[in-house]
Specification:
Purple Acid Phosphatase, chain A, domain 2; binds manganese (II) ion; 9 helices; 363 residues; six-stranded mixed sheet
Length: 363
């Protein structure tokens, strides 16, 4: 059996929400992806870019990648794409090409070296691509250029790190452009979009996939599965997505209704305790507070330090009534009117603070 594994968007070195544990999570996911990939004895490893989160990675993350990849490259060729997180766009420079100087079996795809060929089972396999390019015109021209250079007789894989029209905006590669180039390739891969998915808009021509990430970098990704792609026997139509045990993440949105602060505190406590098995938990709650907003606890992450991230936000609902203001001109008097209509005309201190801030910043 011939296996090819594709790993992307590991984002090593990201200190998500300034938590040291999160840095460890990215490293753990990266290592787990490699370990699982190696268990399939792949003939080739392809990295879809954003291996690192920062342009100048921290030494620990750099060491992790260098050590492991050099070791792996002794027996398995590794091809790297360069992601948007790894390239200084105004200088066009990146540390990633250094990896190819460390081992003859490591290849980094760039404008200067967009093609890498391998002899596998008597067949010629080419992996093609270039670093992330932000400018749409340049990115599309580069794609056209490198595509024109390849021969259709070989097995050709395109590996880029770009937003393709239809999934993420703004995009750098239009569907028209990609469809024109697609016929030359047997497989199209891209990093960048963290949710693994087929790029259905071109799969009538060539199988194409966003590889997916190994660890989530924001709560917006909480529903994404994390893992990597496994292709066997050059069947590019149906890869397997091998899942990774990345840090558990969950977002709960809930309206608590009209309640006293003490009741709201109890509700939040209950939700947190029901989800203590989650590492990164976000509660986005709303409530109509029957009492003082400041009697609702605000130090949840200190009360439950066992979470890697515990993010509780409570949006006080003001009921259904909308307040229409008489004056169109904004001046100090509008605060009196607003406070009066809101039924909090007696909050003199807050009112004068608002006026003070208005005076200070209105210019
Ligand atoms: Mn990324």
């Amino acid at each position: 059996m011939t296996s090819i594994c594709c790993i992307s968007d590991c984002h090593l070195g990201f200190r998500h929400r300034l938590k040291v544990q999160r840095m460890k999570d990215y490293e753990k996911a990266f290592n787990e992806a490699l370990d699982k990939a190696l268990s399939y004895e792949p003939i080739l490893l392809i990295f879809g870019g954003d291996t690192f989160h920062h342009i100048r990675p921290d030494p620990k993350s750099m060491q992790t990648v260098v050590k492991r990849i050099r070791e792996i490259a002794d027996s398995i060729p590794c091809v790297f794409s360069i992601g948007n997180h790894e390239i200084e766009t105004h200088l066009g420079s990146s540390y990633i090409p250094l990896l190819s100087d460390m081992h003859e079996n490591i290849h980094v795809l760039t404008s200067e070296s967009p093609h890498k060929y391998f002899k596998i089972d008597g067949r010629k396999l080419g992996v093609h691509g270039f670093q992330y390019i932000r400018n749409k015109k340049i990115a599309e021209e580069k794609l056209e250029e490198i595509t024109a250079q390849i021969s259709e007789d070989d097995i050709n894989i395109l590996c880029i790190h770009q937003a393709i029209e239809g999934c993420l905006e703004p995009h750098e590669i239009s569907l028209t452009q990609l469809r024109q180039s697609a016929e030359k390739y047997d497989l199209i891969l891209s990093g960048h979009v963290h949710k693994h998915q087929p790029i259905t808009e071109i799969s009538d021509i060539t199988p194409a996939f966003y590889i997916g990430s190994t660890e989530r970098i924001s709560f917006n990704e909480s529903e994404n599965e994390t893992g990597f792609l496994l292709f066997t026997n050059f069947d590019f139509q149906k890869p397997r997505f091998i899942q990774i045990n990345s840090a558990t993440m969950k977002v709960i949105k809930k309206d608590l209704g009209r309640k006293k602060p003490s009741e709201i505190n109890k509700d939040i406590e209950k939700i947190i305790e029901e989800n203590q098995h989650i590492a990164c938990l976000r509660l986005t709650l709303s409530a109509e507070i029957d009492g003082d907003y400041f009697d609702v606890f605000h130090d949840w992450d200190e009360r439950y330090p066992e979470f890697t991230i515990l993010d509780v936000s409570l949006i006080p609902a003001s009921g259904d009534e909308t307040i229409s203001l008489e004056r169109l001109e904004i001046n100090e008097k509008i605060f009196d009117e607003y406070f009066e209509k809101r039924g909090i005309g007696d909050k003199e201190e807050l009112k004068s603070l608002c006026k003070e801030l208005y005076q200070k910043h209105s210019n």
